[in-house]
Amino acid sequence: MKILKFGGTSVGSVASIQTLLNILKNEAKAEKPVVVLSAMSGVTNLLVSMAEGAVIGNEFTAQLAELERRHFDVVKSLLDIQHQNPAFTRLKIHFNHLEDLLQGILTLKELTPKTRDLVLSYGERCSTLMVSKIAAQYFPEAIFVDASELIKTDSAFGQAKVNMELTEQLIRGFQKENSDKMLFVTGFIAGNDAGQITTLGRGGSDYTAAIFGSALNSQEIQIWTDVNGMMTADPRLVKKAFSLPELTYTEAMELSYFGAKVIYPPTMIPAFLKKIPIVIKNTFEPEFEGTVIRHDCKASTLPIKGISTINNISILNLEGSGMVGKSGFSGRLFSLLAREQINIILITQSSSEHSITFAVQPDDAERAKTLIEQEFELELLANKLEKPAIERSLAVLAVVGENMKQTPGVSGKLFHALGRNGVNVRAIAQGSSEYNISVIISAHDLAKALNAVHDAFFVELTKTLHAFCLGTGNIGKTLFKQLNAHSDFLQEKNGIQVKIAGISNTRKMVFNADGISLDTWEDDLQASDEKADLKGFIERMKSMNLPNCVFIDNTASPKPIEFYEEAFKSNISVVTCNKIGNSASYKQYTTFRDTARQHGVDFFYETNVGAGLPIIRTLKDLMNSGDRVQRIEAILSGTISFIFNNFKGDANFHDVVKMAQEKGYTEPDPRDDLRGTDFMRKMLILARDAGYALEASDVEIESMLPKACLDAQSVDDFYAALKTEDAFFANLKNSAEQDGKVLRYIGKLEDGKVAITLQMVDENHPFFTLSGSDNIISFTTDRYKERPLVVKGPGAGAEVTAAGVFADLINVGAN
Ligand code: ADP
Ligand code: ASP
Ligand code: MG
User: Fold this and answer.
1) Within this chain, do residues 36 and 157 fall inside the same structural domain, yes or no?
2) Has residue 695 been placed in a domain?
3) From start to end of 471-580, where are the E strands?
4) Are β-strands 355-360 and 344-349 bridged in parallel, bridged antiparallel, or unpaired?
C-alpha cells in the first residue's frame, strides 16, 4: 500500500483538487492508498495571523470570512448539490468553534501554545473534511480520519514529540477495523494523553504521512507538492535549480534541515528506519518522475547534491580567555540553551578555543544573550569572558551531498565563488560527517551567493553573467546585436548565458535583473523614465547585487573611468574598450590592476589596442609565462594605415584624408588620428603591460604633420592647411616611391623607451605589405628573437571591436 500526501497548494484551489482526484483515481486502480492532507495553501499562516492578531486586540472577522469563503467555494464547485448542505453544516460548525476560540483569545489577550495548536488544527480539519466529502463521490469508501486520535504525542505544543509505539499500534488497529475504507487523514495534527490537540511542527503533514507509512509498512510514501521534486536549490531563489532524481535519506535530511522546505526533515526518520522510499512529486505535472529518497542511490558524479539556505538567523559570539582549555565550558553553554529550549542551528569554535560562535533563530537571540550573561556572571566580572554580542540579519548557506566525502576541493570551490562575488563569510561549519559545509553570510547577499555557488558547482549548467553596459554608440549597439545573434550558441556550446541587467547612454538608463531583451532594448531604453545618471547607474549596479556581475564601458569618455575602482571594490569585473583609463597616469593604471586582483575580479581591455586582435592577451601570456619583451614594433592606427595605403600615384594627401573621413575610418576630428595621440595611448598601454612604468609624456611622438597643420584651429582650417602643404606631403611620397619604399607610421618600444616615428620602409620590412586599414604588431622577445611573433589583421571598426568586447565578456570568471 502507498501513502499519498498532498500539500497546501495541491488542495489550495478547485483546479488543484480536481487534479488531485485524477491522481487518486489513477493510483486506486492498483490499490487503495491512504491519503494525508495539508490545510489549503496559506490557511495555516492565516490562522497564525488571526490568533496572534487577536492577542494584541486585532479584529479577525474579515479573515475568518475569507477562510470560510475559500472552503465554501470549493464545496460549491466540486460537490454534488445534494451533498453540499451537510458539508456546509459540518464546516460551519468548525468555523463557529474557531470563532469562539479567537474571541476568547481577543478577550483574554492571551495565546498559549496549547490554544495556538488548537486554532491551527482547523486548517487540516477543514481541508480534509472537505476533500474527503468530494472524493466520496468517486470513492464511496472514503472516510475522514482525525489523526489527533491516532498520533499520540507529548504536550510540547507547537512541536510535539510522537510516541511511536503507541501511535503505530493505534494506526494499525484503526486500519484493520477500516480495511475496506479509503482513509483521508488530517496532516500536521496529533493529540496528547489528555486528548488535547497538538501539532507536529510547521510543515508537519509530511511527517504524518511518514508515521502512517511506517505503521502500515507501506511500500512507498508519496509527497505531492507544487514543484518537480527536490531541487538543487530553492527554485524561487535560483531560476536554474533542477530536480534531483535521487537522494539518500541523509542528503534529503541535510538539505531540508537547512531550509529546503519541500519536505519536513523529521519525515525521513520513520521512512529511513523501515527503508520506505519517499517519492516527491508535482501535482501540477504528475507525469514528471520527481525525486526518490531511498537508501541506495546510484553513484552520482556531482560533488554536491544541492544547496540550501536559511534566510534569517542571528549569531552570538562568545570570546574570552576563560574558555581556553576549560573542558566544561561549552557543555555548560549548550546545556543551558537546551534547557531553555533554544534551538541551535549551527556552532563553530576556533581551534584556539578563544571563541565560540553559534546561530539561533532571531527570536531566541536576546533570550540566549540574557541567559548567558546570568550563567557566566562570574566569568564576565573577572573579565575572563567578554559580553556576548548578537549579530542580526544573517543567513546560512549550506552545500550538501554525500559525495563531498571523497572529493577534495569542495570547500575551495565554495569559497572561491563567494569571494569572487564579494560575499563576506562570517562563520563556517563542516560536520565531521562531511555531508554538509555551511557558511554564515549577510542575509542581504543570500540570493547572489546562492546563485553564484549554484553556478560554480553545477558547471554543466549555464553560467549566467550579468552585464551592465554603458554606451549605445556603434560598439555598444553592435555588441548587443552580436550577443543576440549568438545567445543560443553561447548557451549550448559554452554554457554561458549573458543577461544585460542595465543599459545607459547619455540620455536614459534602464534595468532588469532578469535581462533586458536584446530584441527590444532600444525601445525599452527609449521608453524608460529613468534619466541617465552615471553615479546612479553605478549605485544600481551595486545594489542589485547580482552574481557574476560585469561592468562594460563602451564609451570613449573619461567619466566612467572614475567608477572602475568602485566596481572592483564591489567585486564587479570590468570590460572596456575605452583607452582613457589605462593611458592616464601610471598610478591609475596600477591601481586598476591591483584593485581588480585584490578583489578577485577581472579587468579586461583587449580592445584598447588593435580592436579585436589578440594583442593584449598575447602579451600577457608571454609575460605570465616568464618571457621578456626586447622590442615591440607596431602599426596601431588603422586610420593612418588606410591613408598611407591610398596615398600613392597621383593622389594628394588632402583628398585621401577626406576620403578616409567620409568612409568612417577617422575620428570625427581627423586631427585626433593624425597627431598620433590615439596611437600614443595604445603604445603606452602596451609598454605598461610589458612592465614599464611610463607616463604619456615619456612617449616620443614624431609628428607627421607640418606646423601649419598642427596649428589649425578647426577641422576646416586643418583641411585648408593640408591643401597648402600639399607639396610637403607629395615630397614625402615621391622620395619614398623613388626608393621603392612605402610610408609607415610606426610605434616602437625598445629598452623601456617608446617612440612613434614616420618611416619609409622597403620590401624587406615586415610592415611593407600591410594593406587597407590593418594593424600589425611584432613582438621580439627572449623566446621569439630570431623571428618575431607577429599579429596582423583589421584593427578598427565596430564589428571587430564589439567582437573583442564580446570575447572579453565571456572570459570573465573563466579562470
Ligand atoms: P507543500 O505545501 O506542498 O508541503 P511546501 O511549500 O511545504 O509545499 O514545499 C514546496 C516548496 O518548497 C516549493 O514550492 C519551493 O518553493 C520550496 N523549496 C525550497 N527549497 C526547495 C528545494 N531545494 N527543492 C524544491 N523546492 C524547494
Ligand atoms: N499546514 C501546516 C503548515 O502549513 C502543515 C503542512 O502544510 O505540512 O505548516
Ligand atoms: Mg510542506
Assistant:
1) yes
2) yes
3) 496-504, 508-511, 530-531, 549-553, 573-576
4) antiparallel
Other residues' Cβ atoms within 10 Å of the Cβ of residue 671: 18
Query: How many other C-beta atoms lie within 10 A of the C-beta of residue 428?
Result: 15
Examine the domain organization and report whether 344 and 469 are in the same domain.
no
Is 682 labeled as catalytic in the residue annotation? yes
Residue 113 in domain: no
CATH number of the domain where residue 317 is located = 3.30.2130.10
Both 653 and 568 in a single domain? no
Which one is catalytic: 682, 707, 753, 792? 682
Decide: 554 and 475 in contact? Cβ < 8 Å: yes
Half-sphere exposure for 788 (CA within 13 Å, toward CB): 20
Distance of CA 549 to the CA centre of its chain: 10
Atom 6 of ligand 2, residue of closest alpha carbon: 203
The domain boundary residue, chosen from 457, 472, 491: 457
Residue 555 belongs to a domain with what CATH number?
3.40.50.720
Task: State whether 737 and 644 are in the same domain.
Answer: yes
Q: Which ligand is nearest to the CA of 46?
A: 2
User: Ligand 2: which atom is nearest the Cα of residue 8?
Assistant: 7
For the Cβ of 234 lying below 6 angstroms from any atom of ligand 1, the answer is yes
Q: Are residues 680 and 754 in the same domain?
A: yes
Ligand 2 midpoint to CA 220 (Å): 21
Say yes or no: CB of residue 261 within 6 Å of ligand 2.
Answer: no
The verdict on 468 and 447 lying in the same domain is no
Residue in the block written with cell 511518514: 210
- 256 touches 200 (CB < 8 A): no
pTM, 2 dp: 0.75
* Residue ranges making up the domain that contains 368: 306-457
Cβ of 261 below 6 Å from ligand 1: yes
- Separation between Cα atoms, residue 193 and residue 313, nearest integer Å: 35
As a whole number, mean pLDDT of residues 233-253 equals 89
Which of ligand 1's atoms lies nearest the C-alpha of 308? 23
Q: Give the DSSP letter of residue 162.
A: B
Mark whether 570 and 451 lie in a shared domain. no
**Residues 771 and 706 occupy one common structural domain:** yes
CA pair distance 587, 568, nearest whole angstrom: 16
CA distance from start to end of the chain: 53
Question: In total, how many domains does the chain have?
Answer: 4
Where is the domain boundary, 426, 457, 488? 457
Q: Measured in angstroms, how far is the CA atom of residue 515 from the centroid of ligand 3?
A: 32
Show the cell assigned to 736. 619614398
Q: Is 734 a domain residue?
A: yes
| pLDDT of 441 above 80 | yes
Q: What separation in angstroms does the CA of 582 have from each of 442, 609, 688, 691? A: 34, 11, 9, 13
Question: Given a cut of 70, is residue 431 above it in pLDDT?
Answer: no
Task: Tell me which ligand sits closest to the C-alpha of residue 282.
Answer: 1
Residue 696 DSSP label = G
Q: Is the CB of 306 under 6 A from ligand 1?
A: yes
pLDDT score of 219 more than 80: yes
Rank 295-299, 379-383, 558-562 by mean pLDDT and report only the highest.
558-562
| Residues comprising the chain, all counted | 815
pLDDT: which is higher, 335 or 221 = 221
Looking at the CA of 226, which ligand is closest? 1
